[in-house]
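User: Please predict the structure of the protein below. I'd like the answer in C-alpha cell form so I can feed it into my own downstream comparison script.

Assistant: Understood. Taking the following sequence of 688 residues as input:
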Amino acid sequence: MGPLRLLSLAVLLAAGPARAQAEGAPERASPPPPESRSTPPASGPTAAASAAPAPPAAPAEAPLPRDRGDGADVALPPVDVPLPVEAGDALPAHASPSTRDPSAAVTTVDVASKKGEAKDAAALLASVPGAVLSDAGGAGQRKSLSLRGAAGNAVLVLLDGVPLSGPGAAMDLSRLPTAALERIEVLRGAASARYGPGAMGGVVNLVSRAPGGTRAFGDFTQGSFLTTLATVGGATRLLGGDGLLLLHGLHSRGDFSFQYDERPALDGNPLTTATRENNQALQGGGLARYRASLGATTVDVLFEGTAERRGLAGTVQNPTPGAQQSTLRGTLSARSFTAFESGGSLSVLGYGRLDDGTFTGAAFGAGRYHQLESSAGAEAVFSRLFFSRHGLTALVTGGGDWLSEPSGANPSQGRFGAMLADEVLFFDGALGLNASVRVDVAGAFTVFSPKAGAVVQLPKGFEVKANVGQASRPPGFQERYVLQGTLMPNPALRPERALSADVTAGWHHEKAAVAVTGFGALYEDLITYEYYPPALAKPFNVMAARVAGVEVEGRYAPAPWLDTSVAYTFLSTQNLRDDPRYYLKALPYRPAHRLHARVAGGVALLRAHAEVLFQSRQYVNRTETLALSPRTFVNVGVSSTPWKRPEVTVAFEVKNLFDTQSQDLDGYPLPPRAAFFTLALAWEGVTQ
C-alpha cells in the first residue's frame, strides 16, 4: 500500500467516523494474532506487491481487493510469502518499506509460517535475495546483514519503525528471538532518500507481535551444544487499550567440534579436529507494547531490551580464550498517528536508546574496557492527499548520540534530517511516479540524497518497478567512535556516496509469484570492514567501487498443504581504487552466488520442511589472496499441532544435515550438524 492509498483511507476515516464505528473499526484496529492470521488480498495502485500488515499505530480499514486484470482477485494462502502481498486488514505504519518507498524491491518474511523452527531473526533473513549474513558462529553470537554489496554498517535495522542502532552500526540480529516478531520487511537497495543515511544498502523493519485480544503463548527449545531458548508472553486489554508483554532467554555453551587446516599456505595438509572454546552465550530480555486510541489519534508505546554476556572466541588462527563481552541495552519509543478531518495525517515518533558495554581480554587492552553509548531522536511526518491522486509527504527528524569511554574524550554528535516526497498516479493508478529529496546533517558532515521511482501495473498480474538516485551517508557515530564487540572504530572515516539504479519485473498469481531485479551502484569512498589483526575488524574507505547484480525470487503454492520458494542472487563487485594491488579485485565478504530454496508441506497434524542454502567462495581481503570456501547447508524438520485449544505444537529440526565444515568472517568456524526440539503453546481467549 503506497502513501496515496494510506492518505485516501486516512481521509475517509476522518470524514466518516460514524460509519467506521458502525462497521466495527475499533475491533479491526487490533488484528488477530499471527497464529490465526491469513494473508488477505493486495491493495493500492502503488502497493508494489509489498506486505505491511498490523501497524503499531494506525487505525484500520477493510481490505481492498486488487484486480489482476483478468477479473479475479489475488488472495494468497496463509503461507510464507517471499514476494510479499499487502495485508489490507490495517493501514501500514508510515515507516513500513512498502509505504515509505512504494517503488522499491521489498521482501516480507512471515514469521508465523516458521513456527516451531529453531531460528533467530538472522536465520529468517537467509531467504531474502540480495542478503548476505556474517556469523561469528553459534547461538547468541554476533550476526549482521549485508544487502546488495553494501556493508552491514550501511543497513538500517528498525523495530516497528524505530531505529535499533544509529547510522553506521551493524545491528546484531542475534539479540531478537523470532517469538517476538510477526514478520520481517526487507527493502533492498539504496533508501537514503526516504530513510536517511543509515539505509545505503537497504532497510530491515522487524515488526513485533501486535497487542490485541486476550492470549498467552510460550516456546521452549532444547538443542545441541547445551543450547536452550525460552519465550513466554501474553496480551490483554489494559487501561482502555491493548497491552503485550514478552520475556525471552537464551543459553548456549557453544563448545562444538570443528575441523581446520593448521597450515593453510601448504597444500595437502590433513585436517585437524578442535573444540570451539570461549563461545558461550547467555541472554535475557523482553518486549512490552501498549496501544490505545484517543479520539482521532492512536498512540503506540514500545520498549525492547536485552542483557547478555558472551565469550568472544576469535578466529581459528588467532583464538582469544579470555575475551568476554557484557552488554545491557534498551530502546524506548512512543509514536502517535492522527488523521485530520480536513484531510492529511501526522505521525510523530520519539525514542531513546542506551547501550552499556564492557569488554575484557587481551584484544581490548589491559584490564577492562567499559563504554556507555546513548542516543535519542524524534521524527514528524505529515502527509496530504490532493485531488485523489497526488500525495505530498514532508519529514523532519533530529537527535543526538553520546559516548562515555575510558579515554575521557567522550565524543558526541548531533543529527538532523529533512525530506520532501511527492507521488502522483496516472491512468486510474496504473502508473505511479514518485520522487523525493533528503538532506542529512551529522556532526560536521552534510549530505544530500535525491531519488525517483515508478510503478507500472500491467494486466494479468504483471508489474514493473524502477528506481534511480543518489544515496549519501556520513560516517556513523558508532563506526567512528564506538567499539562494537569485535568491530573497532575509525574516527578518520569520510562520507560515502552511491549512484544506484534498479529495475524489477514481477508477476503475481493466487498460487505463484516471481520477480527478477537487475541492480547496479557506483560507490565513492565506500565504507567497508576489513580484517584488523589479531582478531578484530576495522572500517576503511575504499576510494571507489562498482556493484551490480541480479536477484530472482519466486514462490509456488499449488495447494494449501504445499509451499515452495526460491531466492537466487548474483553479485559482481569491483574495487576501482587506483592501486595495482586492489584494482578490479572483488570486494571482501561479497560472494558472487547465493541460493536459498525451501519446500514445506503437510497438514497441522504432520508438517515437514527442507531448505538448502548455498553460498559461493568469498574473499576476505582486497588483494584476493585469502578466501572462504563455498558451502552448502541443508536443514530439515518436522512439526505437529495435535491440539488447537490450547494450540500445542511440537517440532524437531536438524541443521546442517550433512555436517558441512565451514567458516565465516575472517575465520570463525560455523557449527556442525545440530538438532533442536521445540515445544510451543498458544492460548487465545474467546472474542466477544
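That's the full C-alpha cell string. The first helix runs from residue 3 to 15.
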